[in-house]
Amino acid sequence: MAGEKTVETTGLLGWIDRRFPLTKLFKEHMSEYYAPKNFNFWYFFGSLALLVLVIQIVTGIFLVMNYKPDGALAFNSVEFIMREVPWGWLIRYMHSTGASMFFVVVYLHMLRGLFYGSYRKPRELVWIFGMAIFLCLMGEAFMGYLLPWGQMSYWGAQVIVNLFSAIPFIGPELSLWIRGDYVVSDATLNRFFAFHVIAIPLVLIGLVVAHIIALHEVGSNNPDGVEIKEGPKDSKGHPVDGIPFHPYYSVHDIMGVAGFLIVFAAIVFFAPEMGGYFLEFNNFIPADPLKTPPHIAPVWYFTPFYSMLRAITADFTWVLAGASVLGAIALFIKSNLRGVWRVAVPVILLVLAVLLRVIDAKFWGVVAMGGSVVILFFLPWLDHSPVRSIRYRPTWHKYLYAVFLATFVILGYLGTQAPSPAFNLMSQIGTLIYLGFFLLMPVWSRLGTFKQVPDRITFTAH
């Protein structure tokens, strides 16, 4: 028919298309995938995360060619890469900088989702896949951190793996199974190497593909939180408020990529250690099982959660138990829960209050650290706001988000510092704010006067 696009049937592309849906996939996910036309700079970070993943895989392949996963040789093999392998220093610094930049762009990507409600219906599965990617990244980074076999690598792994021993009944056996020995040793290095190089990357790539497919099935969110698929369509059935991802956003993202690569190159060439935050100074000392560093701390991207771990002390469990009791009373007196849940939830909270005092505080520190990540999976069901985007929420909601963001940054800083009474108190307050932000979200997210959401997206050409 006139005006209808025909599929390439000749040449190499035609030969491929008859055997593999290359053109069809390109159209579905690029040239005929309509995205909202009001994307802003916050939407750079998804593409940048994909770029950093490619950088990490490529540089990782070259590093593996010369790395020795052996307790007696690992540290020297890294030194060999840095000093003897042609351009080895560049590959190593790109990989170490890429690890930190991965978390920078992923944290910003998650923050955008939090601001604009990108986890809300119908994108719950997109968010869950994204959080699974985040968990895989944490595992990948933790296991990769041991591989240089420096002092901080060794003792950081020793501390974190020992935390699993706090789990009742199975803890000691679990930590022994993870290490493969009674202490972090050559066996630990070998299994961490296998997971870092093969197992987790395979899962990570699968999750990234699932994340993108799920996103393109339901469509992208936008700063207004308006569904363009439900808006007016043109004569071809395409959303009027949408534009093809390619060439518009594929070109648009080049600006974000260029800016990112400038920053990335500046760090790699001029400040690869970033004052000890990207590469700790203690990690340039070979691992010594007989000499403990004066202050053991994880890399900066784990420190907010590490602060929460350290915040849970025996005294602080009294505060948490009291909060559980007050929550149980409040829910029983005034709650939207119906039927058996009206009694069950307060009872669970009362049992939790008792357990907080019965079970060792170290275990609850592990629960707080793990729970602070796991709770993010439930964000689509915790947020009861009638609107998606922060643009149309009450002004005080924005202040609440600002307090949450500042708390997360402060917790990150505290996690890099040696413990002290003042810092521990700040960590405890920060932990309460972080967990309270999410646990109380079903209540505060509904409160206030919300602005009218427009029927169509607001867009200004730029």
Helix content: 55-70%
**% residues in beta strands:** under 5%
C-alpha-based Rg, rounded: 25 Å
Structural class call reads: mainly alpha
Low-pLDDT stretches are none
Note the run of SSEs as H and E: HHEHHHHHHHEHHHHHHHHH
Shape: globular
Strand order of the largest sheet: 1-2
Largest sheet: 2 strands, antiparallel
What is the average per-residue confidence, as pLDDT, rounded to a whole number?
91
Provide an overview of this structure:
The chain is built from 18 helices and 2 strands. Helix 4 packs across helix 5, helix 5 packs antiparallel against helix 6 (124-146) and helix 6 crosses helix 7 (151-163). The protein has helices at residues 11-17, 22-31, 44-64, 74-83, 88-116, 124-146, 151-163, 171-179, 186-218, 245-270, 303-311, 314-333, 341-358, 361-374, 379-382, 395-416, 421-439, 441-444; strands at 34-36, 242-244. The protein has a two-stranded antiparallel sheet with strand order 1-2. The protein is globular. The protein starts with 10 loop residues before the first helix and ends in an 18-residue tail after the last helix. The protein has 462 residues and is mostly helical.
